[in-house]
Design a protein that fits this description.
The chain is α/β, with parallel strands linked by helices. It has two domains: 175 residues, Rossmann fold (3-Layer(aba) Sandwich); 179 residues, Rossmann fold, CATH 3.40.50.12580. It has 16 helices and 13 strands. Strands 3-2-1-4-5-6-7 form a seven-stranded parallel sheet, with helices on one face. The chain has a six-stranded parallel sheet with strand order 10-9-8-11-12-13. The N terminus is likely disordered.
Length: 417
């Protein structure tokens, strides 16, 4: 019995050990490759060309964030500035682009991806992936500066704990980020990060698409259910009875789960899809780009997902939201007294769906769609969370270029000492 116990490794420890082993193997491969190149060049009588670190690297852990990074890559390309784009998706849309200056590379999935990132060489790494130096993704000793850009209009309190602690800079969508970041830094006795408001690249992209999109009127009212993931999300809190009540309205229902649900709530989705399969009046949507499904919906129902702001700010339509005693425990919100900006402004922009409304949800949907009460608040809230509209890509690249010059100048001064 004791012998068997000594051989047991719990899943968490096993995952950590696997990450360490992969990191060591990756480092060994790069070391051997470098030594082999040096040996070949030396034998041929040549000189080693030390290309050094690349100035700019963008990392996307999944292709779904292409709407965040495409405008930035386009801006690098427009300026004819070389940039490396690393992705964790082999079928990332970046590979369909005919870039000359942006070099895209698939670095693998899961642990393989993070092991590669742990050894990358760059002055600046821009990413929307939280959890740097908290879980598998460790800071590379050969990267000088990590900058985080957001993929949703919210203040960061709905990120998982310690999500942004070890980034050097935060590229904010609006001024709503400043008090949150500073308060968390103070609570954790951490140095202050750079915070620069640049706007939102993906919202700029949605806005540009919407300006050239002519919407066709639906034959039947279309309701989009787009929840967040986790224990506080609609699918966990309300589940089958809620979907059943939506179906009974006679409206077309589109269910678009959060992308993370496919990973963290796989069994839940499988059960619900088996109970409510695709039909003429019900659709499960997993499109990489959400523009089509958002633009085609007459009304949106969600919980605390940032997609509500994409919908209401771009398409100027109200939404319905649920607020089933949101549990802040896993989130940064658990550390502060303030309510997350997203939850604070929800009543100004949409109608809360309560349990007693489920019996007449059709009437709630109909009333909300024609209400003008929320319209005047949209511009106010939009100005708080989404600043420099249409300029986010330009301002992001401006920041990266400026920071690279600072880092190079500091490196030169250090070398002269």
């Amino acid at each position: 019995m004791i012998r068997n116990c000594l051989c047991y490794i719990d899943p968490g420890t096993g995952s950590m050990l696997l990450t360490v082993i992969l990191s060591l193997v990756t480092s060994a491969v790069f070391l051997c490759r470098g030594l082999l190149i040096k040996l070949k060049v030396k034998l041929s009588g040549g000189e080693i060309e030390d290309t050094g670190k690349v100035p700019y690297t963008i990392f996307s852990d999944h292709k779904r964030y292409w709407n965040v990074f495409e405008p930035i890559c386009d801006e690098f390309e427009r300026r004819e500035i070389p940039c490396v784009y690393l992705t964790g998706s082999e079928d990332d849309p970046v590979f369909s682009k005919e870039y000359k200056y942006v070099k895209a590379k698939f670095v693998g999935e899961g642990n393989k991806c993070f092991a590669a990132l742990n050894t990358m060489r760059s002055y600046i790494c821009l990413s929307t992936t939280p959890g740097l130096d908290v879980l598998q993704w460790k800071r590379s000793k050969n990267v000088d500066w990590y900058a985080h850009t957001y993929h949703a209009l919210e203040d960061g309190l709905l990120y998982r704990m310690f999500a942004l602690d070890f980034y050097d800079a935060i590229l904010a969508t609006g001024d709503i980020h400043y008090p949150v970041i500073r308060e968390l830094e103070k609570l954790r006795n951490m140095p202050e990060k750079e915070i620069v408001t640049v706007g939102s690249t993906y919202m700029d992209r949605l806005q540009a698409q919407a300006q050239h999109y002519e919407r066709k009127k639906n034959d039947v009212t279309t309701v989009l259910l787009a929840p967040s993931w986790g224990d506080s999300g609609i699918l966990n809190k309300k589940g089958e009875p809620f979907i059943e009540s939506l179906i009974q309205t006679g409206y077309k229902i589109i269910i678009r789960p959060h992308p993370q649900s496919k990973v963290s709530e796989k069994e839940l989705l499988e059960r619900l899809q088996a109970k409510f399969p695709n039909s003429d009046m019900l659709e499960w949507n997993y499109d990489n780009d959400n523009f089509k499904v958002l633009s085609g919906a007459d009304i949106l129902i969600s919980d605390f997902s940032g997609v509500m702001f994409d919908y209401t700010f771009i398409f100027d339509r109200p939404f319905i939201y649920t607020n089933d005693q949101f549990d802040p425990a896993p989130y940064e919100a658990a550390w502060v007294e303030r309510k997350p900006w997203l939850l604070d402004v929800l009543p100004k922009l949409g109608r809360e769906l309560k349990d007693e409304d489920l019996g007449h949800i059709k009437e709630v949907i109909d009333e909300t769609m024609v209400s003008q009460a929320y319209k005047e608040n949209r511009e106010i809230c939009k100005n708080e969370a989404w600043q420099y509209r249409g300029k986010a890509a330009e301002r992001t690249v401006d920041y990266m270029v400026r920071k690279y010059e600072e880092l190079k100048n500091a490196e030169t001064k250090e070398g002269k000492k």
